[in-house]
């Protein structure tokens, strides 16, 4: 069963009924300024740059009904006293028509009730520090109507945690409304001179700043007393919960439309807020701002566009995957409807990986993000776990994999841009001193090379990529095959970088170190697959000898990615993946999950069997396996695994998965769980960047390299070919792939501007702005 469809012409997902299994959300704005999340029934929250330290709108966690409060509009018919929400929530009166359109950076929600059509468009104009709610109310009936429209925005203490934890935080704020502008400012513990405002230029019939006055005791957003009575009581709010509620008379002749605009943002004072609101609300400004928003995303997407015979692939790679990758790059794992913007900031390893999904189009932004993250690396080479963008503070650490992700992001940046001077840029260490970017990378690699256990494999430390596997490390002796293979790939990559910058002695050393890893890799082979590492007793774990957690996915894919698996092992390992971990919804992270949490007896994962890291389908790991399949030339297997997990392909089973069909989710319950197929944690996941890399660089095979653009498709046999546009080093490569052999793997002839070139790499452009035509025959 579905809850909507893709409008591909407009790049929108259209939700046709409001009662989706979970709130289906979208993001407004970006991490540079004012931004927020909005659900399909107008729920959500807003914040300025940092949802933890500069929250503007409150979100009630675990509220019932779910997803309260939000950016609400109420309408009340003066003649009958009937009232409703055109976004369905919070009144939840059945609407005659309902439609929510989530687009790139905007959401519009349309609802009709008793002949009144209302459409509210929500967006943050590019480069502006406010959000707009443009509400259009139309009388579709044949008689004049007299209505009252109410707005509702509920302020949060800027420190979101304080707001949730203690009532005294509420006692420290004051809110007032004058001339349509409601201003809110908490008195204490804020490090900004900016106040939140919410206002309109529409003439008011009344307002409330006191939540208690607007909602009334023992009521909720569903039945506010002010809406029920048809009037606000012009309250300010002092030492209490405060809202921006405005009441506006809307009298409509048949066919007449009235436009009312609300603006939410921050300003230094009321005069500035009033000026922002007046400027932002002009219809021509809104039109221009909305066009600018659409242009921004068109330009963002234009660096890579593709036309394949598969519409699901096109929709994913042209629109929704790059969009999700950018949102994930902006917000790391900070705020979604799963991550609540209360503890995690910009994660070191998370966002090092997020870079991979956006580098092709915002390389300069990506470079700054890499530098921001490198600031939380220690001189010893390891890293703290996260940094908070507004305060610059950092937290966490002690994991074995963090530092390992830098090299992949930097290598990708260098391949994309050729900007080797980046390696010489100076970045401080979190514990003092500073070093070049290259120095940071080298120290990270050296840390993993030094911090090894009894078998010469990197120690697991607090955890590796799999943070839920932490309890495996009972006595600190556990060693991680994942980090071992990561290290292998890191050494290969750094050797290539040394080649480029003429440091040949270091390149030789890195390659020697890499070759020296082979016997240790061999020792991790259990016969049919690679083990996950050595357990606290020094025995291999993740093998057929184990009762639980017999086989893990990541050591298989990373053994292939690193090149440390022999060809026979690589093939066998990936076959074992298909035999043991494949499901109709994607690849499980491990098989034979333990039903109980009992680390002493291999029950390491603190979650029910079949969920998350304990045998769930953990999508972040799927693209690594897909890439591994392409590296082995197993194109049918690669494509099957890729296509299977595309979000749009679960549109018709949205009642089973429960989650948005336009974005990847982090995980889904696996076959060992009774609710197999149920998805969790949408939007912010490493799945977004890696699926983009797997799709564009490995399946379609359009892969930037230091000295050219690799054309190495690994497509399904039945495709005749495909066309793509890739902007690379300032040039536009127009690519046509012809699948003549039906083998659909590896290019046999490559024409660049009509001239045959050897191999499968198109040269770098002679000058930026060039258009280069590529024709490749398989
Ligand atoms: C979550 C975390 C990520 C971790 C992964 C596996 O996605 O955000 O940092 O690597 O889980 O445990």
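Q: What amino acid sequence fits the structure above?
A:
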């Amino acid at each position: 069963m579905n809850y909507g469809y893709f409008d591909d012409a407009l790049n929108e997902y259209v939700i046709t009924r409001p009662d989706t299994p979970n709130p289906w959300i979208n993001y407004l704005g970006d991490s540079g300024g004012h931004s927020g999340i909005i659900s399909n029934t107008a729920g959500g929250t807003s914040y300025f740059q940092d949802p933890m330290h500069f929250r503007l709108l409150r979100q009630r966690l675990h509220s019932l009904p779910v997803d309260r409060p939000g950016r609400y509009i109420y309408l009340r018919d003066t003649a009958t006293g009937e009232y409703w929400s055109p976004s369905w929530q919070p009144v939840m009166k059945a609407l005659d028509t309902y439609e929510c359109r989530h687009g790139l950076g905007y959401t519009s929600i349309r609802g009709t009730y008793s002949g009144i059509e209302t459409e509210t468009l929500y967006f943050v104009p590019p480069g502006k520090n406010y959000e707009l709610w443009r509400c259009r109310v139309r009388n579709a009936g044949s008689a004049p109507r007299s209505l009252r429209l109410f707005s509702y925005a509920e302020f949060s203490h800027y420190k979101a945690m304080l707001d949730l934890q203690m009532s005294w935080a509420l006692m420290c704020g004051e809110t007032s409304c004058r001339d349509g502008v409601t201003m809110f400012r908490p008195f204490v513990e804020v490090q900004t001179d900016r106040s939140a405002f919410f206002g309109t230029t529409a003439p008011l019939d009344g307002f409330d700043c006191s939540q208690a006055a607007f909602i009334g005791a023992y009521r909720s957003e569903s039945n506010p007393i002010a809406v029920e009575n048809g009037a606000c009581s012009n309250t300010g709010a002092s030492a209490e919960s405060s809202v921006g509620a405005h009441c506006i008379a809307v009298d409509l002749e048949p066919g007449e439309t009235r436009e009312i605009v609300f603006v939410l943002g921050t300003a230094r004072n009321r005069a500035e807020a009033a000026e922002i609101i007046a400027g932002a609300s002009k219809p021509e400004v809104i039109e221009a701002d909305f066009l600018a928003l659409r242009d921004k995303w068109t330009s963002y997407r234009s660096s890579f566009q593709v036309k394949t015979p598969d519409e699901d692939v096109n929709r994913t790679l042209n629109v929704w995957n790059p969009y999700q990758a950018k949102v994930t790059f902006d917000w790391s794992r900070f705020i979604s409807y799963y991550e609540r913007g209360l503890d995690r900031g910009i994660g070191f390893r998370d966002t090092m990986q997020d870079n991979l999904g956006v580098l092709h189009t915002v390389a300069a932004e990506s470079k700054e993000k890499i530098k921001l993250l490198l600031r939380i690396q220690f001189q010893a080479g390891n890293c703290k776990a996260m940094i908070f963008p507004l305060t610059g503070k950092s937290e966490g650490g002690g994991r074995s994999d963090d530092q390992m992700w830098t090299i992949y992001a930097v290598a990708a940046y260098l391949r994309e841009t050729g900007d080797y001077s980046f390696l010489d840029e100076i970045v401080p260490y979190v514990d003092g001193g500073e070093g070049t970017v290259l120095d940071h990378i080298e120290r990270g690699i050296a840390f993993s090379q030094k911090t090894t256990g009894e078998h010469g494999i990197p120690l697991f430390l607090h955890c590796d990529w799999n943070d839920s596997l932490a309890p495996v490390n009972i006595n600190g002796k556990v060693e991680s095959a994942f980090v071992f293979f990561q290290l292998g790939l890191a050494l290969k990559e750094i050797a290539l970088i040394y080649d480029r910058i003429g440091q040949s002695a270091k390149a030789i050393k890195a390659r020697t170190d890499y070759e020296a890893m082979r016997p240790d890799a061999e020792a991790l082979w259990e016969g049919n697959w690679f083990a996950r590492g050595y357990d606290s007793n020094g025995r291999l774990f993740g093998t057929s000898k184990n009762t639980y957690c017999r086989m893990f996915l990541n050591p298989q894919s990373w053994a292939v990615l690193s090149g440390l698996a022999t060809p026979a092992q690589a093939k066998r390992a990936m076959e074992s993946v298909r035999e043991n971990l494949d499901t109709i919804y994607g690849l499980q992270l491990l098989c034979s999950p333990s039903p109980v949490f009992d680390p002493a007896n291999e029950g390491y994962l603190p979650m029910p069997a079949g969920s998350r890291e304990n045998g769930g389908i953990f999508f972040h790991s799927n693209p690594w396996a897909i890439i591994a399949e392409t590296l082995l030339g197993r194109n049918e297997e690669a494509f099957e695994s890729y296509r299977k997990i595309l979000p749009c392909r679960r549109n018709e089973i949205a009642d089973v998965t429960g989650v948005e069909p336009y974005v990847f989710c982090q995980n889904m319950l696996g076959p060992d769980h009774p609710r197999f197929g149920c998805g969790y944690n949408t939007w912010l996941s490493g799945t977004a960047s890696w699926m983009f890399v797997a799709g564009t660089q490995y399946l379609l095979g359009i892969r930037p390299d230091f000295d050219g653009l690799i054309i190495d498709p690994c497509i399904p046999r039945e495709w005749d070919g495909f066309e793509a546009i890739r902007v690379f080093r300032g040039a536009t490569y127009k690519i046509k792939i012809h699948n003549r052999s039906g083998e659909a793997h590896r290019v046999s002839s490559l024409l660049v501007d009509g001239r045959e070139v050897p191999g499968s790499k198109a040269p770098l452009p002679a000058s930026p702005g060039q258009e280069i035509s590529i024709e490749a025959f398989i």
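Q: And what stands out in the fold?
A: The first strand starts at residue 4 and ends at 7.
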